[in-house]
Amino acid sequence: MKSTEIDEQQRKLLLKLAATVVSKAAYQGERTTVNIADYSGVLVEQRACFVTLTINHRLRGCIGSLRAVEPLVASVAHNAYAAAMTDPRFPAVTSSELDTLSYEISVLTPPEPMPVKSEEDLLRDIRPGIDGIILEGEGCGSTYLPSVWEQLPEPGEFIRQLKLKAGLPADYWSSSMTIQRYRTESFSS
């Protein structure tokens, strides 16, 4: 993560932006355009993020990017819209759901390679509750944010489920597979 952390006022602004984007999409079917010139500091730094929507602690949508390709405010707006309207696991959020939605924004550090030679190395080096993991192999890939450790606290099961999410067998391992880790700064409404 860059040296600048996101302060409480900036967190509230980003959460409000996400809620505004989702509301406009649900009511009007439109995307919100963010004027980057209206923001400064960490909010205009290129940062990767995920936006997660929940209702009563149950996932309702989650979309994000693993690479920093746009200013943080634009990434939040883009991913909030996508989580609400285009997450393939769910129908689009409706206006009747807006009052029940909770928002979480996870801002990612740049991914770092984990040079492991075996699954045993990976399980030894992984930091439960801290590391988000990107797994890529056989043309497939998947990631779990660090918050997923709450549902999958055992490292072996975390990695097995990550492989299944990528479309790989749970017991798959190959020396051609790449593993990366990242951390997040997460905040929610």
- β-strand amount: 15-25%
Number of domains: 2
CATH topology of the largest domain: Glycoprotein, Type 4 Pilin
> In which range does the helix fraction lie?
25-40%
CATH superfamily of the largest domain: Hypothetical protein ph0010, domain 1
C-alpha Rg (nearest Å): 17 Å
CATH C-level category of the largest domain: Alpha Beta
In what order do the strands lie side by side in the largest sheet?
2-1-3-8
Mean pLDDT: 94
Runs in which pLDDT lies below 50 for 5 or more consecutive residues are none
End-to-end C-alpha gap: 22 Å
Order of helices and strands: HEEHEEHEEHEE
State the gist of this model:
The chain is an alpha+beta fold.
